[in-house]
Amino acid sequence: MTEKPVINFGLEGIYVDESAISKVDGQNGKLWYRGYTIEDLSEHSNFEEVSYLLVYGKLPNKKEYEEFVKKMKERRELPKEVMDVIKAMAKDSHPMDVMRTAGSMLAMYDKDLNNKEKDATIDKVITLISKLASIAAVTGRFRKGMSYIPPDKSLGHSANFLYMLTGKKPTPTEEKLIDLMFILHAEHSTNASTFSVLVTASTLADIYAATTTGIGTLKGPLHGGADEAALKMMYAIGDPANTEKYIEEALEGKQRIMGFGHRVYKVYDPRAKIVRKYLEERMGQNPSEEVRKLLEIALKAEKLMIDKLGKTKGIWPNIDFFSGPLYRSLGIEGEMFTPIFVASRMSGWGAHVVEYWNNNKLFRPLEWYTGPLDVPYIPIDKR
Ligand code: CMC
After folding, report:
1. Ligand 1 pocket check for 231: Cβ under 6 Å
2. Which of 102, 88, 91, 187 is nearest to 136 (CA)?
3. Cα angle: 95, vertex 121, 140; to 5 degrees
4. Is the C-beta atom of 263 inside 6 A of ligand 1?
5. Which residues form the catalytic set?
6. The predicted structure's pLDDT at residue 351
7. Helix H segments across the chain?
8. Ligand 1 in contact with 195 (CB < 6 A)?
9. How sure is the predictor about 1, in pLDDT bands with cuts at 50, 70 and 90?
10. Spatial CA neighbour of 335 closest among 92, 87, 96
11. Residues 201-229: pLDDT tens digits?
């Protein structure tokens, strides 16, 4: 080919496959997992049921649900070597780096690593969903020099995560809030990390390799890392009265405001709306001064950004914007936000790998070469 083809930079607007897992309607601000609205799931379901739905493609009956939950509970403990590596890394590494390394180690314990049959893959996904939450919780404790809290089988998945992280059994409200965040982060079509998971899976590498790729991709501040970055921005604003000045100066300096904008949503992200709603309810429950201030800053920034960029450029709050105040109301520090994203998104990554391996094709896009050709080679001592 000599004529330059159309280049879809960043794969913007490109369909790479069909999928029955989730639908993102970016024009109307809607999201469905397997046909169920995110509003219904976040209100009536829980993370275990949502994970089952994503991975198996249907809601479980009571027996299926109980078996699934039992498996998840039985797999929460981490091998000693994984705990040792977390301990060695936790103090000096970002928790996402610990997640990537410790998550990758899990491959070592799978005696059936390369089995890609559907049932075997689902089984590995259940292990990963269960253990990645433990890795996140243990990382959160070890980085603070705190002791290990073993999992508690009387608690559901998200409540147990919070317990292993904080050492306190959550109240019903706290359990609802952390579970809500797990549900909202569980799946989002072919976003950057899911796509990267599929690229690795398409080479027929194992699911741990694919997951490790996903964790690396999710770390970046344009993707999963935006939640931590948005909180940092709110701390930098400090006082709600500074919000307008800060945002205006940042925009004039061509900086991005973290937690705003999305490749697909050109309206308000429905997940952000749900987090905002729960957060406002939480404000009625006598929150700390820090959380009250963060929400005040967030609401001011939201209004400003919508006035400036929402209606004109389609840049609206995304899921990562209100996460900060909500997680802080549960006592979770900013560096732990993206690891929680990993622990929840594992359900979506797993569902996509199961679906993709059903009809695998190696991903191999093209690049239009713009460099020279047939350059004469000059030996190093003549250059
Ligand atoms: N603040 C200020 N300007 C923005 C922002 C923002 N958050 N997002 C996009 N823009 C501007 C951008 O500067 C560009 O302006 P211009 O046309 O004048 O050059 C225009 O909007 C288009 O930006 P783009 O980067 O080409 O658009 P995109 O579709 O590739 O962007 C995005 C998507 C998420 C990378 C971007 O909106 C962004 O950087 N947002 C901040 C990071 C963030 O919150 N990420 C989380 C996304 S949702 C959860 C997840 O997927 O993990």
Report:
1. no
2. 102
3. 15
4. yes
5. 262, 320
6. 98
7. 38-44, 47-56, 62-74, 80-90, 95-105, 118-142, 157-166, 172-184, 192-202, 207-218, 226-237, 243-252, 270-283, 289-305, 311-313, 323-329, 337-357
8. no
9. low
10. 96
11. 999 999 999 999 999 999 999 999 999 99
Residue 23 phi, psi (nearest 5): -125, 130
Half-sphere exposure (CA, 13 Å, Cβ side) for 327? 25
- Check: CB of residue 341 under 8 Å from CB of residue 224: yes
Cα-to-centroid distance, 233 and ligand 1 (Å): 16
Tokens of 200: 């690795």
**What's the CA gap between 157 and 165, in Å, rounded?**
12
Pocket probe mutation, ligand 1, options 14, 275, 313, max atoms within 8 Å of Cβ: 313
Ligand 1 lined by 8 (C-beta under 6 Å): no
Q: Span 293-299, mean pLDDT?
A: 95
Find the mean pLDDT for residues 181-208: 98
Helices 118-142 and 337-357: crossing angle in degrees, nearest 10, is 170
Q: Quote the radius of gyration of the chain (alpha carbons, Å).
A: 22
Q: Which two tokens stand for residue 104?
A: 């990758």
What fold characterizes domain 226-329? Cytochrome p450-Terp; domain 2 (1.10.230)
Q: Return the domain boundaries, the chain.
A: 22-222+346-358, 226-329
CATH number, domain 22-222+346-358, options 3.40.50.970, 1.10.580.10, 3.20.20.70, 3.40.50.10240: 1.10.580.10
